[in-house]
Amino acid sequence: MKKNLNIIIVIASIFTLVIIAVIVVGLTLPSQKETIQGQAEMTDYRLSSKIPARVLEIRVKKGDMVSKGDTLVILDAPDIEAKLSQAQAAFDAAQALELKARNGARNEQIQGAYATWQKAIAGRDVAEKTYSRVNRLFEKGVMAEQKRDEAYAQYQAAIATEQAAKSQYDMAVNGSRHEDMTAARAQVERAQGAIKEVSSYVSETALIATADGVVTDIFPEIGELVGSGAPIMNVSVIDDMWFTFNVREDMLPGITVGTEMDVYVPAFDKSVKVRIERIKDVGSFATWKATKALDKYDLKTFEVQAYPVQPEDLVGLRAGMTAVFEK
């Protein structure tokens, strides 16, 4: 019995010594660094059509480098071309009306108005002489009063006819009113605006690169019909590049905006110096680390964005490539 007790004491002593040795070794070993992995990101812009059209030509393919101003896609929009023809015809008609209002009546119209006026003058003179004769006969008692009144009415009517003919002649000579010319000019400007509007749509049938970049996605095929605002192509801007790391908040000490550090890019097999420009909350419960069960607190994750100090070091980098650093 005593022998068994001695064995138990020896085993317990050995176990205790092993535990102490593990604790001492653990305290003396340097703390292991934690590797934080991220990836490269680029600003993307999307080419889309302003008008419904059919894809006529795609001049690039995925992975191609494009420069600002390059024509990437050609669309076919016959409806817009028809509207442009209609707008041009409306403009020509408005110009003709404005020219007519500006030039006034034709010479033939002026001559016709003048002849009508002269005819009215002759009629007035005849009516005046007739009234004078009838009035003298009435005063002598030879002519009835009714005849004199009829002659006077005809004379007054002749005067009114002559005045009306004179007004028509003056209007022909003076041309269109200012209001008519203003209205005609407004019609021309309206037609010009319609042409500019439709022409802007026509220019949208050629989609152009707005910045240097690399084509990452092409959605439709040649011959497909695309609607207004439908995405056609994605282009990543190679001059706007950064790294994104998701860092747990207990790893944030020492990581602040403005801090420079080295990150390793496996695709280039080299380290690149970057500067932290932005730290923001990821805002998703999926990035929390639950530790409350251990009488601690939940740990959130923050997105750290770091930009290269020397962008030329990352020539050839593509979105999605891995980058790591140790903390």
UniProtKB/TrEMBL annotation:
PANTHER family: 36 KDA ANTIGEN, 36 KDA ANTIGEN-RELATED. InterPro entries: HH_YbhG-like. The chain crosses the membrane at residues 7-29. The keyword Membrane applies. Keywords: Membrane, Transmembrane, Transmembrane helix. Gene3D superfamilies: 2.40.30.170, 2.40.50.100, Helix hairpin bin. The lineage of its organism: Bacteria, Pseudomonadati, Bacteroidota, Bacteroidia, Bacteroidales. It comes from Heminiphilus faecis. The keyword Metal-binding does not apply. Pfam families: HH_YBHG. This is Biotin/lipoyl-binding protein. Residues 75-198 form the YbhG-like alpha-helical hairpin domain.
